[in-house]
Design a protein that fits this description.
single chain; alpha/beta; TIM Barrel; nine-stranded parallel β-sheet; 15 strands; globular
């Protein structure tokens, strides 16, 4: 058998799974993780008056749905309930068609609305062949020990990948104690500081925050992560605008898709082990790639649209970012395969 063909077969055989062997012997980082994965952050916290008795999250900061909502964009599918099985099915179909392999579901602790909806969301994702991860949020009273208990409970539901948001709220040593007690899971820390993640016993880092961590920061972050034996999962996204959702005055313009493209290029150039997308549907912060309405006005209120993104207009622009995601997920997979075939690392 010709050597190039044999190498191709071996590469294809190992592509779905990789194991990192850190130089410092960190036990958590040695655990297996899906290689070359693309994950997207998903929020199951929306409610409507018809389905849930009130408008959950659409109405935060005293907004008055359905015309006045806590977002600078308006969903093309209208205001929806995250408890609606038909909505979940349609959303997961969109995510899968965009080439994303994993849905990281926002989770706010046991007994939260997000926690109650989690089984329904996970079932919808798996029905479309998507892996399910959990985005561990900083709920009131969260500690390293409570997080360990949370991970143990969620592991029983088949969850193996966890993203821990704002880990620097606690000392690295607390997380190291937690991670030393875990088995058969991979926990990523939301930080640009590889040293903190290593000391905390995490398997890798992700960035999430599109304003703080731009495309130009990914090479530095991933180089430091790899030097520490950690996986690097930088977060790409289309932009940021939370003025109506939270009052945050910071804005990262979408630039008709140029921002999204730049972040993807930065992640690929940084030799990311996986790419995380901020976000599918965080409407409050304007990071969503879920289809947005092309009609700018809702009653007396005006909303931003995706008009002009990738030169698309009208209703064709509503799905612009999902379609572009399909392009970039393929580009990421192709670059990863080429790196393995032609002398790159096998992280």
């Amino acid at each position: 058998m010709p050597k190039p063909f044999l190498r191709l077969l071996l590469t294809l055989a190992v592509l779905p799974v990789a194991v990192a062997l850190p130089a410092d012997g960190n036990a958590t980082a040695r655990k297996p993780a899906t290689a070359r994965q693309v994950s997207i952050f998903y929020y199951p916290w929306y409610g409507t008056a018809a389905a849930d008795g009130s408008y959950a999250h659409w109405a935060q900061r005293a907004h008055l749905p359905p015309d006045d909502i806590a977002a600078n964009f308006y969903p093309a599918r209208g205001l929806y309930s995250s408890s609606d099985a038909k909505v979940l099915d349609a959303q997961m179909d969109e995510i899968a068609r965009a080439g994303v392999g994993e849905v990281a579901v926002s989770w706010w602790g046991p007994g939260s609305a997000e926690g109650e909806r989690f089984p329904l969301v996970a079932a919808a994702a798996r029905a479309h062949g998507l892996a399910v991860a959990v985005h561990l949020e900083p709920y009131p009273g969260r500690s390293a020990e409570s997080t360990r208990v949370d991970i143990a409970a969620l592991s029983a539901l088949g969850i193996r990948t966890f993203y821990l948001y704002q880990p620097q709220d606690l000392p690295a040593g607390d997380w190291a104690t937690m991670n030393a007690q875990l088995a058969n899971v991979v926990v990523y820390a939301q930080t640009g500081l590889a040293g903190f993640a290593r000391r905390g016993g995490f398997a890798g880092v992700y960035t999430y925050d599109l304003v703080t961590y731009g495309a130009s920061s990914f090479a530095r972050i991933c180089a430091a992560a790899h030097a520490s034996g950690l996986f690097c999962a930088p977060s790409v996204g289309p932009g940021y605008d939370a003025r109506r959702g939270s009052g945050d005055a910071r804005v990262k313009q979408r630039r008709s898709g140029a921002t999204y493209d730049a972040m993807w290029r930065g992640a690929i150039a940084a030799r990311a082990d996986r790419v995380t997308i901020t976000s599918y549907n965080e409407w409050h912060e304007g990071t969503q790639i879920e289809p947005a309405a092309s009609v700018a006005r809702r009653g007396a209120y005006r909303y931003a649209t995706y008009e002009g993104a990738y030169r698309l207009r009208g209703t064709a622009a509503e799905t612009a970012y999902l379609e572009r995601t399909a392009y970039w997920t393929k580009s990421f997979a192709d670059s990863s395969l080429a790196r393995l075939l032609y002398g790159g690392d096998a992280r």
